[in-house]
Amino acid sequence: MQATLKVQLSVFMFLQYFIWGSWYVSLGTYLASTLRFGGQEIGAAYGAFAIGSMISPFFVGLVADRYFASEKMLGVLGLFGGVVICLVPQVTEFGAVYLVLIVYCASFAPTLALGNSLALHHLHDAKRDFPRVKILSAVGWIAGGVTVSLLYAEQSALQFYVAGAASMVFGIFSFTLPHTPPKKVGRDVSLGEIVGLDALALLKKPSFAIFVGCMFLICIPLYFYFVNMAIYLGQLEWKNIAGWMTLAQVSDVVFLFLLPVMLKQIGYKATIAIGIVAWCARYFLLAGSVGSPEALQVTLIFAAILLHGVCYDFLFIAGQLYVDGEANERMRGAAQGFIAFILWGVGNFVGTMLAGWVMANHELGTPAGAIEHDWQGIWLLPALGATLVLIVFLLFFRGEQKTPETVA
Questions:
Q1: Is 300 a residue whose pLDDT tops 50?
Q2: Pair 206, 268 in one domain
């Protein structure tokens, strides 16, 4: 039974991230090249996912957890999202595109929490088996990006139809998952419980407060990569952009295996600091690539892409494990909900909006061939921002240097 379940969950994770990977990376290229939107509009469009992430806890807490079985809710959201994302190419005005993206993201974001919750509920040894199942999410993201790249769909509406078709398959497949009844039938759920405000008590610990503040601050430069990278490569006239950028997820898989070893050997503070250093290095590499000879430029860009595993796993996955270790059993769910709200909700929104604003304000008066922006200036800003966060984290964070054996 568990073997069959792990196969089902692996397919589920693959489909879920195939959808995400088939449009999220190349959205900026489509908006810039096809619809000719400006930087602020592109940043706002990426911020639609932040709005969806902020809506998600309310939807899951008030509706999904109280009235509907998780597998049925996932099926409905998948089918509905498949229809909505196919509407994106039908509109060309920013207001309409933005509204459709918000509706779509508000339907997709809850599937991330619901899917994880369903998997953790049914797996007998979740600590051992959940990371193995989750690896298929990276494989799905890679497959989505490669598919879009092979179809040359980065700058066309085809990417949204690929995501829509995959979402339909995802929705239908979700109905085959094990029955998972609502967890809070008949319970009154407080606003604090839904968004994790009960975890605010943890902020009384100075180290935890510094950690949360640094995680929020690092989100601001972080989203410059997601908003700007595909557009930068497009102006460099790279082909198969979405496919090349999936090398980030290959790196993700490798470093996900290394993360437990790092946590056990050097602890939370050093591991998270390495993650922040990787973000600094990524942006300095991209800034250095601007105007460099072609061979050096390509090398620096690929190095920046391949740093993704360190950037993401050593910072965010390690950070979530730190939060899990700091919270007690009663507060653990609230603490994870709170940090997710900060990272993928508020932090995402501020970061994407600022990234779009910076891009708009670094547009060249006279394009240099296909180059329309001052990319060195764009990349140096998040590089310096991440460096400042690193200094604050190293000076003031006083977390445990070693992880508990159970977490490691």
A1: yes
A2: yes
